[in-house]
Design brief:
Rossmann fold, single chain, binds NADP nicotinamide-adenine-dinucleotide phosphate, globular, two-stranded parallel ribbon
């Protein structure tokens, strides 16, 4: 049995759907990963062969103001899961982020590139990666720019803003790969089923800026609204963000035989799915 922790989150819910009867799901009402005893109790009682941790404190700007919570959930919480899974001989799958990188490389990041987070969220997720390794049987899946039907996400935000405003201004100097949580769930299952361990990158193929992503959303939905550009500096958010953090997913394809579809195809599939 595969235990999904954070099963009510955006990724967790799509992963639960994909895994079907292979999975059990728990979330904050059943387990608090910041509490070692709670974590050990749940993991011991359910005795899974694999634990996929989708639970996290994912508010990137919120992490800047709540450093302790970020480190507790994204760092120490993963350590608790690593200890609990190691004790029962289960594999730990930890979901991580492109924000462990600073975005200065100028080409897609490989799994072995040195991390250098720019913000508290990235630091806390990097701590989580290191703590996951407390269980030697671990798999770390780094991803980025997620959207899915079960969470607040960029696609829905853009569509809502387009209903409320006459024109939009969206950052055009940050580049990455928008990634549909359904495709990420497929990649995670492929990695689990092929027994992969270590670090893997998983994101939809190709890349764009947030501004390019917004334009694509409006093109695909037939929404006619001017989209102006702005710099990250002008937006002035609390957390610094990497400017180019595309992930090279070659290892995923080579080892697990899974090739994520281009981001624009995934966006089309999402737009169909959200109306069903
Ligand atoms: N979203 C992105 O763009 C993105 C990009 C790269 C990587 N990731 C990573 O992908 C994973 C999934 O992200 P997501 O966007 O699907 O997350 P999400 O929607 O925010 O879901 C996270 C879930 O974890 C729960 N949770 C929070 N603290 C917990 C705790 N102490 N114990 C147990 N459960 C707890 C949350 O409950 P509450 O809602 O009640 O807090 C929520 O149900 C995370 O590891 C994230 O860091 C996300």
């Amino acid at each position: 049995m595969i235990l999904v922790v954070g099963a009510n989150g955006m990724l967790g819910r799509d992963l639960m759907t994909l895994l079907g009867s292979r999975a059990r799901g728990v979330d904050i009402d059943d387990i608090d990963i910041t509490d070692l005893q709670s974590t050990e109790r749940v993991v011991r009682a359910l005795h899974p062969s694999v634990v996929v941790n989708c639970a996290a404190y994912t508010d990137v700007d919120g992490c800047e103001a709540n450093v302790e919570t970020a480190m507790q959930v994204n760092g120490e919480g993963v350590g608790h899961l690593a200890m609990a899974t190691r004790t029962i001989g289960a594999r730990l799958v930890q979901i991580s982020t492109d924000y462990v990188f600073d975005g200065a490389k100028g080409s897609p990041y490989l799994e072995d590139d040195p991390p250098c987070p720019l913000n508290v969220y990235g630091e806390s997720k990097l701590a989580g990666e290191m703590n996951a390794a407390v269980n030697p049987d671990h798999l770390i899946v780094r991803t980025q720019w997620l959207y899915g039907r079960h969470g607040k996400n960029f696609v829905e935000t853009m569509l809502r803003l387009a209903r409320e405003k006459d024109e939009l201004t969206v950052v055009d100097d940050q580049f990455g790969s928008p990634t549909w949580t359904v495709d990420l769930a497929r990649a995670i299952v492929a990695l689990i089923d092929t027994g992969c361990t270590g670090i893997y990158h998983a994101a939809n193929a190709g890349f764009c800026s947030w501004n390019g992503f917004a334009r694509a959303i409006f093109q695909e939905t037939g929404v006619d609204i001017p989209v102006r550009g702005m710099t990250t500096e002008q937006l002035n958010r609390p957390a610094r963000r990497p400017l180019y953090s595309t992930l090279d997913c070659t290892r995923l394809e080579q080892d697990a035989g899974f090739r994520p579809q281009p981001w624009r195809d995934a966006l089309r599939a999402y737009l169909v799915e959200r109306t069903t």
